[in-house]
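Team,

Forwarding the record for the chain on the shared tracking sheet. I've put the sequence and predicted structure together so nobody has to dig through attachments.
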Amino acid sequence: MLAIKNNIMAANAARHLGKSYNALARSVERLSSGLRINSAKDDAAGLAVRELLRADIAVLRQAGRNAADGISMIQTAEGAMGEVDSILVRMRELAEQASTGSYSSDQRQIMHNEYVELQEEITRIAESTDFNDNFLLNSTVGVGIHVGSGYINITPEKMDAASLTVGTTLETTETHVHMRSVTSASEIYILDTEIVGGTTDMFVYRFGDTNATTIGIDLTNYTGTGISLNALVTKINAEVTSQTGTAYTAASTLYSSEMGGRYTLQLQARTAGSYDFEVHDTGGDSIAVLNSTADFTESVDGASGGVGNDLTSATGAVAALTTIDAAITVKDTYRAKLGYWMNRLEVAESVLNVQAENLLTSESRISDVDVATEMAEMTRTQVLAQAGVAMLAQANAMPQMALTLLR
C-alpha cells in the first residue's frame, strides 16, 4: 500500500539498522577491551563464574608470593648458619690445637681468648639474624607460611652459643653423668647381655617437674650386639628431637682425665636452671644399668654452677672437642631442616603457580574474546549496517512516489 502518513518500510529498515548497529557496537567493545563479557548482560552466568575464578587466581598468586617470602626468610637464616658452620669448624680446630701438650699455658690462653670471641660471635649472629622480626636462630616461636589451603610450619631453634653448648660459661645448666666409663667412645657401652631382648628394653629419664617431657629410649634393636657410647648418644639425641620436637645436645660423651682418660655418658637439661633429674624404673622392661638416678652423678648443679668450655688446659680442650662435635651435629640437623623447608616451599610455590595458570586458562576461555570469530561477526554486521543505511535511505524516498499521483 502506497501511503504517506506511515512509512512502514522506513520503520522496518530503521529497526534492522538499529539491531545491526548494536551488534556492531558490541563487537567493537569486545575487540577494544579484549573481553567477551564486559557487563552482566553479555553473559550473566559466565560473569559469575569468571569473578569467582579471578578471586581464586588472586589468592593462588598471593599464596605463591607467600611461599617465595618464606623462602627468602629461611635463606636469610641459612646464610647465617653458613657462617656459624665456619666458626664451629674454627672452634674445633682451636680445641684440637689446645689439646696437645706441646703448647705453654700462655699459648693456650691465646687460643682460649680467640675461642671466647668466636662463641660471642655465634651468639651475636643468632640474636641479630631476623627477617621482618622473625628470628629463626634465636627463638622457638613457630612461623606459619600460609600457602592457600593451609600452613607450612617453620619451627625455629636457638642457635646461640649457650644453646649449642659451646659457650665458655654454662653455669646454669643442670648436667648429670653416668657412673660407667669406657676407654673409647666407640667402645660398647651397654653390653648385649644387659639388653635382655624382652618386649622392650627401655632407658627412661626426665629433667624437670611432672609437666616436663619424659624421654624413652628403646634399645631392643641392640639385643645381641650391645651399643657403643657414640651410638647411644646419637640414639638419645634423636629420640629427644623426635619426642620434644626440639633438637639440642641432650646427651654427649664426656672425656675425663681424672678417670684415666676415659669416656662416659653425659645428660644435660634443655635450658638453664636447676631441675629434678629422674630415671624411671619400668620394671622388667628397664635396662639394669640405666634404671635408677643412683646410676648417675650430678656434675653441674643448675643452681650452684659449673664451667663451660675451657681451652686453657689440655684436658679442658679435649672435653671441648666432644661438646663442639655435638654442637656441629645439632647445627647440621637444624641447617638440614632449613634446607628441606626451603625445598618444600619451592615445590609449593611451583604448584601454586601452575594452579593459578590453569585457572587463568579456564577464566580466559570464559571471559576473553575470540578475535577471529569476533572479527568475522564485526565484518558481517558492518555489511548489514551499510546495507541498512542504504535501504533506510531508499525507504525514506518511497513516499515521494505518492506525489506523482497528487499532481
